[in-house]
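hey can u check if this looks right to u? its 147 residues, i copy pasted from the old doc so theres a chance i mangled smth
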Amino acid sequence: STIITLADWYHEVALQHPLQPVTTLINGMGRTSADDVSHPNVPLAVVNVSKGLRYRFRIIGLSCDSPYNFTINHHKFTIIEADGENTAPLVADSLWVSAGQRYSVVMHADQPVDNYWIRADPLATRQTPGFEGGRNSAILRYAGAPH
């Protein structure tokens, strides 16, 4: 299994709430400022997979506030566990993950070998949504895909 963490990233000390997070970190990595978004060398997290295999992803909401709409482009996944409790399998193409929530999903790496976006779009009223320049994103990389 692979752990995928979703966290909000603050750039100022929060002396009082609410302070808006700047961006989403996926597995501790992300792009935030206009400079980061326009500079493709700021690294994004990469989750490596091999075509034809199934993967259990343990998705953990580490945010202070923002819920995230978690997706993997061109992939569906089966939700099998929520907050430590097994669930009836549910096939989905997106999953809302709130602060402190934990989910296990199974994804079949059944797409053509390539790179695909992993996205964690925050609720628009609490953080800057969207994916401009790789913001709120990571990469699902199939073995053999270009870097």
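The chain has a mean pLDDT of 88.
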